[in-house]
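To close the chapter, one final illustration. This time we ask the reader to focus less on the individual chains and more on the assembly as a whole: which components sit near each other, and how the overall shape emerges from the parts.
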Amino acid sequence: MDRVSGAVIRSGGALVILAVLGICVFLALVVLPLFRGAELGPPNSFTLPAPPAGEAWLHAEINEHSRLGLALAADGVLSVFAAADGAELQRDDLIPEPGLRAVSFSQDSGTGAVAMGLDDGTLLLGVLRFAEEFFADDGIPAEAAGLQVGSAAPFRGGVIERVTPERARWSRLQIEMRPPVPTGGPAPVTLVDYRISQTGEVLAYLKGSLQLVISEVITSENLLTGEITAELSENPVPFEPDPRGPPARLSIPARGDQLLLAWDDGTLRRYDLRRKSAAALVETADLAPGATRLTALEYLIGDQALLVGRDDGTVSVWFRVENEPGAVGAPADGFHLVAARELQPQSAAIVAIAASQRNKTIATAAADGSVWARHNTSARVLAAAQTGGPARLLQIAPKGDGVLAATDRGDAVLWPLRNPHPETTIGTILGATWYEAYPEPMHTWQSSSGTDDFEPKLGLVPLIFGTLKATLYAMLFSVPIALLAAIYTSEFMSRRMRAIVKPKIEMMASLPSVVLGFLAALVLAPWVENWVLAVLTVFLTVPLAIVLGAYFWLFLPTRLAARFGGWHKLLVIGTVFALATWSAFPLGGLIERTFFAGDFRAWLAPPHPGSGTPMWWMILFPIALIAVVGVNHFLLAPRRSHAARGEREAARELAKGALFLVAAAVLALIAAQILTWAGADPRDAFLGTYVQRNSLIVGFAMGFAVIPIIYTVTEDALSSVPDHLRGAALGCGATPWQTAARVVVPVAASGIFSAIMIGFGRAVGETMIVVMAAGNTPIIDVSPFNGLRSLSATIAVELPEAAVEGTLYRMLFLAALTLFLITFFVNTLAEVVRQRFRKRAFEL
Amino acid sequence: MSERRRTSLAARGEPLVWLLGAGQVLASVMILGLLAFILVRGFATFWPKPIERVELADDRVFLGEVAREETFRPMREEGSAEAPAAQHRRLLRTGNYDLYGDDFKWISEGEVARTERTADAVLIERLEWGPFIGFVEEFKSGGRVIAATREEAWRLYEERHATARATWKEVRSLEKGPLGAIFHEINALRLELRRVELAHGREAAEFAAAAARVAAEQARLLGESLAIGERISALKEEMRKDALVLSEVGGARIELPLYAVVRAFRPNRLSLGGRLGVYFARWGEFLTDEPRESNTEGGVFPAIFGTVLMTLIMALLVTPFGVIAALYLREYAQQGFIVSAVRVAVNNLAGVPSIVFGVFGLGFFCYLVGGGIDALFYPEYAPSPKFGTQGLIWASLTLALLALPVVIVATEEALAAVPRSLREAAYACGASKWQMIRRVVLPKAMPGIMTGVILAMARGAGEVAPLMITGVVKLAPELPVSGEFPYVHLERSIMHLGFHIYDLGFQSRNAEAAKPMVFTTTLLLICVIVMMNIVVISVRSRLKRKLSSDFF
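The assembled structure is written out below.
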């Protein structure tokens, strides 16, 4: 029995402790995959179906299950093949008239929109789209009946695959080509781009080397025959031919709001198309500086960022950012292009760039046959592979799970791509990252949005900042109160009073934080919003009134003062406190009317009425007061200890106090005025617009959670200072105040430090108060009147919605791990300090 | 005396002592003020308030109860130099959301022309659309008006309301009870079949046998459900017969079936007894009923039940593990650097934010352990998870982990407090180590361990952040305890008082309408936690007395 129970307890205990410590390990294990690159699986090499004699494939792509592919040649021949082995399944000819060829070609990988400019001057528009159909149970055709789950066979021009024992999926190509539309004249279209979006179709083309046209495609259906005819509404764009010859590339985003023309030497012209009838050239840029030549140009998903490939193997990312206000010579449409990022160069000229339709992953192929998978946001190379020659036909599979690269000769390679977390590196998480359309690299957290082409912004810095900001304001509020209260309880209260007061304050610790958050957000925040200045005034009036009250208390004969030392004194202090608080309301109103243009919130808001001096004064006054008192204490009257004479001494003390106040006020005013003259305004420097749920509210509400902890630990530390030290001090003639300030508190200093650290740990991880009362805005801003968002609040709000094992899920685990490590470190520090303190107190 | 006077006044440090005192006062006022605020607001919520008819200067008329009054300062208008003066205004709860599209109306003091208390005004708490405030004009039965005056209609309402409600409750209990059970059974049969299919394949003889049996069972159950359905429709027919014709203050009329009236009263005519009756009836509904109107009305019984059950399961889980770990640390492990390092680590875990435990609970318990259980034992549920998602057991486990350090520390302290002499006496009597622990140390340490466990429960009951990740939902369709096997459904999501507060205050359609409920829920939660704390404090003081007196 004894041995069994011993074994159970030993193994059980060790297990429990291991499990507890395993939390950290588990969190780290979930986080780790974030930093792993992508993997290209074993390549599947095959040969594309042979192109027609004398032609090469212009374009090749595979479908979302990587089962079916298509290849297209300039003479209109379209080949559908099985992506497993390249076996041709079907061959069509898209160009109805024999003998015609495509001079120009464009394909939009998101929608499958295809445009071909034919050499008779017409345009062939249409959509090549992969479609699929499912067969279940008895409906499974005979071709698929004998298939194993996961294998596929040719079927009616496409491929059929057994997905589960009950279901089969037939993938095929849907060809929806319209009859060729004339473009006004026999000159062939030399460059074309055709895009389809939810709002409509846009088309831009260059005819010969003279005419640049954008047009919207208007389709109409013949009611009798059901035949659909397309017409172009053409808007010429003023195009000045360039001495270098015709441009090599033309590109429009699916939004159709701008048009890019690029030459091989890197010159780029950007036209503003927001008003189709008044399109205008707004910007010229050089995408390939020096002698380098532009060899590839592709939009990233979302059509914001441009990927530029050059003949020296470099790849860079460009996008539009807003002009700075008042910038001279900036493009007229309010934006200008910037080279945001230079990606790691490949060793030979870039021949093709492909963008993923799922995220910001890209693939680049170089002339030496190397194919790299990269990511735009994180700028990292995810994986690299090698083909036999320059892979001009390059595609990232529609689901982002494969890369297809094919050479002119038709040698194709398909790599499966495992690419779960391309966007996260230490750099993007902790560094400033230049996101699309942002004016500069920034620390940003914005994890999700409604659209697919959204670029997740996963910088933890704003959240860490928010956490520390909330903690700072909470500590600013609660540390003084908790320490003052603890010292009073321990040193100036009788044992009986202590037994009543201490449990009350400790009870505060058991208030659920959800209650505090709710009260702070729904009761306190709207109320404070009405009375901001009164609340700020309280911070001045209460300490002043308390100190003033103390001076008047000095007029009390010592005998009376001693008799009323207990509850009565506390009651008097409470009354003074209440009076001071109450007086802050009319006073705050007066200050607001006199100094803050009548409305503090309006004073904070952008037009910035009035001057910044009063605010500077409010901030500087306490500092000046401390300085004045300090100067007096340490320089003018060091350790003055002459005999005192009752009331007269009290009156002198009072006069001195008043003098200090006036001196501090004048000093602060002078300093404030100097700051204002120097052009500093607190509203520019660190105070923003007033937000209802702000850091001030959070700090106050968190005070309820933090004060009792600091209070309890501090009080314990103070009470464990041995009584013989107090006795010795008092015996030497020290007053209780001197005993407390010069003997007890210094001895207990390390205990007090650990109390503050424990309070810090609690504030860092506080969740519900921040979720409810902080406004949840992930911004980096020190203003106490602005909101914040902490690590813990982000976890609580976003984790229930995050896809399991997705990037956001792991990022939130990283946030949790960060919190764990911060608090673990702080608490360990506190614990070590406290143990040392205990040992010291024991030795004394 | 003269001796005392000779000390410098500066040495007495009076101003600084006063600052210390002010800190003390503020800390005490904060806690007492907060508790008082919650008590007042929480207890006042259900008190029936008089209904006021407010005529404005522009001839608009409103009828409603005054929810609260305040002094506010409007934002300054664009371009005006003078800031507007503070104004007094009241928030009138006008109800009738279906008619007005809003529950509340702010009325500034300056606009009011006349205020009066109309005697006939009625407040009706309805099943849908929140309260109705207006007048009862007629009483209809079977589509025919049988009472055409306000008095007559009210008398008939009082006469027939109880019966209509009883019928409605019967319908509800039929739908939830027998009918619900049948649907559960049908679903269980479907899963059973799927299980057979996964085990043997569709072509197997077992599958054919099971399919036949399941089909027969399902046919029988469907027959039963049809019978109950008929009974329900008969009852519904009957309960739809009686209706009230109501008019709001502007004159618009609506018809309200009698069964949809939860409670109706004329606040301006109520005696003190009547008021008390309404007050306690509302408390009764709050404590025992289910929520309505996306939680803003009705009761919070599922949340109370969920909170208590989760906390109990947590205590059941945490106690043995915590005690075993503490016994190991204190009695069995070799005291040395490693053990004290472990002790520091365990201590510090108490300071790790609860949300971190929540994240761990979701990743480890819900997805890893729960997903594993699903894959091993419940493949027939796929693709929808049974254990592999948020649920009661995972929330309890997470809380248990969170509370483990509390219990370990408390138990260790209790173990350390058992005097050495007792142990030595036990050994001297020939007891083995385990016997000594079992018979001497543990009983002696029991009150301390209990304190730790209750402290852990109090902390657990108030936690929200880790729960909203691991198993607490806004509205749980079913309680985790039911009449169906295995009676306690550990995998179900639960409701929780703390999360209820968050959800009501921040996620509901109308935060203002939900506010009273938030205050009462808060009051309830605080009561539960304060009660647990009082138990702890009394146990602790008794323990101290016992230990100091029981010394050898």
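The mean pLDDT of chain A is 86. The radius of gyration of chain A is 37 Å. With these observations in hand, you are ready for the problems at the end of the chapter.
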